[in-house]
Amino acid sequence: MSQTDPIADMLTRIRNAAKAKKREVNIPNSRTKVEIAKILKDEGYIRNFKVVDDPKQGVLNVILKYADDNRSVIGGLQRVSRPGCRIYCTKDSIPKVLDGLGVVIVSTSKGVCTGRKCEELGTGGEVLCTVW
Fold first, then answer.
1. Max CA-CA distance within the chain?
2. pLDDT band, residue 52 (cuts 50/70/90)
3. How many CB atoms are closer than 10 A to CB 78?
4. Domain assignment of residue 72, yes or no
5. Which one of 52, 70, 91, 104 has the largest count of C-beta atoms within 10 Å of its C-beta?
């Protein structure tokens, strides 16, 4: 089955697993998805992730993080730029998520990074998704 938007599929799998209180979720692997998972781990939204090799493509195993009262740390995930409608930002127009409480993930010429890192680097790019 071919996917037209693998990043949206990744976000949906994480969102569904968090709502179902799953401990971990398996996602087909790609370099961009690994970079997004690194950002989610660095920002404290997931506990950990690992890449499991298999003959086809590989699997990205994401271990979700929950608070003490068994609520997911991830309040929401939203895909911004889609294959049918790409959304770009300049270094001066990087969007804020919940007035800085969330994270925006941007694909730049210097790699996939957060909105804060884009401001430090002075670069813009394609707005992939927002997390809060």
1. 43
2. very high
3. 14
4. no
5. 104
